[in-house]
């Protein structure tokens, strides 16, 4: 893995920081020694994990993709990182992202642009683009990302890997740099659903450092996967699948639509009944999301004041110290979002924007509830298009935001969703992957993993 990382990294640029090779080899040797002595090792012993750089690691810099945190080293590990280390995982490096998770292509990173391993002239998706490209290029075995509005699922789709966005509260957010706290969740990337099941269990569960983390029991997802060796002819017999018809209409790439339709035929062959389900409020989710996410972020990002964290610009008076440090440290996308969020929350506009967006959020939640009463899972594309060219959307923020239409509703409702590769469409030297999004009821990750495992 380290050899491949070294060889491919100049082309892909997944990592903003790579662990010291000697340190990695030392950890691996220590695990080997324990195995030889017959001592117990954790279920992730020796597994090389890439970690999105908005998740705090005490032994490596953690920048959130922002110049304002360049060189910052947290004093602690995020809870999810601690859990990985306890189980023997080795953190191989910190992966690139859109600054503080704000973006859909990883081009809004303060440091570098990451390439899609399928076609290096294209984006890997975002904001967890580096975590997706790293697994896709086999630079590490699995990786962690975060998903506020699709940042695990859309890059998984663009890079042809498995991506899991858990239920809100399933994984502790302690040590995850906050973007929009009511939507953020840590998720995982891997090259198979089985690996996802193992990784998800390792990082899930209640944490006293995150008041929104859930104490719902964490099942042993991997041992509950139905064995593929003993396939009946219809292993998913009786499973009701709802295909969200609003996600297959105008503006969706024709190759994406046909891949999803082929996936639905495959699900029927496996025994599912697939019916169309209509969710009329679906298109309202995108504007509501961008109001809520920017509002929350304008508040969350006030902590970067040049005093408590990261880079400080020298000034002779405190207001210019704050102002100059922020002006200097934040990139243009982040500044735009702070302005939008502050505007939406300001006294004269609160009712027109923030309050209405919260009402839409309730509507979206109810319509998912109704759809999941009729169906065991819902399906849709993970993104309306396959990976696009680097630079194609950087001057058109609305076009970039529109690419999140398939994923943001799931965060508004706090539900879990799994993305599995389901087809390859034309474009690039080897075609471009398409991901199928499967959405489940809250805390029913086990069902999604089972369906995904049998489907893949
Ligand atoms: N692309 C969306 C945004 O820019 C989602 C990002 C995310 O999930 N972190 O807000």
UniProtKB/TrEMBL annotation:
Annotated coiled-coil segments of the chain: none
Catalysed conversion reaction: L-glutamyl-tRNA(Gln) + L-glutamine + ATP + H2O = L-glutaminyl-tRNA(Gln) + L-glutamate + ADP + phosphate + H(+)
Any one GO MF annotation of this record: hydrolase activity, acting on carbon-nitrogen (but not peptide) bonds, in linear amides
Location in the cell: Mitochondrion; Plastid, Chloroplast stroma
Keywords for the protein's UniProt record, in alphabetical order: ATP-binding, Chloroplast, Ligase, Mitochondrion, Nucleotide-binding, Plastid, Protein biosynthesis
E.C. number: 6.3.5.7
Active site: 52, 127, 151
Residue stretches making up the Amidase domain: 1-449
Top EC category: ligase
Biological process annotations from GO: glutaminyl-tRNAGln biosynthesis via transamidation; mitochondrial translation
GO cellular component, one term: glutamyl-tRNA(Gln) amidotransferase complex
Other comment: This protein may be expected to contain an N-terminal transit peptide but none has been predicted.
Subunit structure, interactors included: Subunit of the heterotrimeric GatCAB amidotransferase (AdT) complex, composed of A, B and C subunits.
Similarity section: Belongs to the amidase family. GatA subfamily.
Function recorded in the entry: Allows the formation of correctly charged Gln-tRNA(Gln) through the transamidation of misacylated Glu-tRNA(Gln) in chloroplasts and mitochondria. The reaction takes place in the presence of glutamine and ATP through an activated gamma-phospho-Glu-tRNA(Gln).
Protein name: Glutamyl-tRNA(Gln) amidotransferase subunit A, chloroplastic/mitochondrial
Gene: GATA
């Amino acid at each position: 893995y380290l050899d491949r990382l070294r060889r491919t990294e100049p082309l892909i640029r997944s990592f903003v920081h790579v662990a010291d090779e000697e340190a990695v080899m030392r950890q691996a040797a220590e695990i080997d020694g324990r195995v030889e002595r017959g001592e117990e090792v954790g279920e992730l012993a020796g597994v090389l994990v890439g970690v999105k750089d908005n998740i705090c690691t005490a032994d490596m810099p953690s920048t959130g993709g922002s110049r304002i945190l360049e060189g910052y080293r947290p004093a602690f590990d995020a809870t999810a990182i601690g859990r990985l280390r306890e189980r023997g995982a080795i953190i191989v490096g910190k992966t690139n992202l859109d600054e503080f998770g704000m973006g859909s292509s990883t081009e809004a990173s303060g440091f570098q642009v990451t390439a899609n391993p399928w076609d290096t002239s294209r984006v890997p998706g975002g904001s967890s683009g580096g975590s997706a490209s790293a697994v896709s290029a086999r630079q590490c075995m699995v990786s962690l990302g975060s998903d506020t509005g699709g940042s695990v699922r859309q890059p998984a789709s663009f890079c042809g890997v498995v991506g899991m966005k858990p239920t809100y509260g399933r994984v502790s957010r302690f040590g995850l740099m906050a973007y929009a706290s009511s939507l953020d969740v840590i998720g995982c990337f891997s090259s198979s659903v089985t690996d996802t099941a193992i990784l998800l269990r390792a990082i899930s569960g209640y944490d006293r450092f995150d008041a929104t983390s859930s104490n719902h029991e964490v099942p042993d997802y991997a041992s509950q996967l139905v064995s593929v060796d003993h396939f009946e002819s219809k292993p998913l017999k009786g499973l009701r699948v709802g295909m969200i018809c609003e996600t297959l209409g105008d503006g969706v790439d024709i190759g994406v639509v046909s891949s999803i339709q082929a996936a639905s035929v495959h699900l029927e062959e496996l025994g599912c009944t697939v019916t169309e389900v209509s969710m009329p409020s679906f298109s309202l989710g995108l504007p509501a999301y961008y109001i809520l996410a920017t509002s929350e972020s304008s508040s969350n990002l006030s902590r970067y004041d040049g005093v408590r964290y990261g880079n400080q610009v020298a000034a002779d008076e405190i207001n210019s110290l704050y102002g100059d440090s922020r002006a200097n440290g934040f990139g243009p996308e982040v500044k735009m979002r702070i302005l939008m969020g502050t505007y939406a929350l300001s006294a004269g506009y609160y009712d027109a924007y923030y309050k209405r967006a919260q009402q839409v959020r309730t509507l979206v939640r109810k319509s998912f509830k109704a759809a999941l009463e009729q169906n065991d899972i819902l399906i849709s594309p993970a993104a309306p298009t396959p990976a696009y060219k680097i630079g194609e959307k950087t001057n058109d923020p609305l076009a970039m935001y529109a690419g999140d239409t398939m994923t943001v509703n799931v965060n508004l409702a706090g539900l879990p969703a799994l993305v599995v590769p389901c087809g390859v469409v034309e474009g690039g030297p080897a075609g471009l992957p398409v991901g199928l999004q499967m959405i489940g009821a809250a805390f029913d990750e086990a069902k999604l993993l089972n369906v995904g495992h049998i489907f893949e």
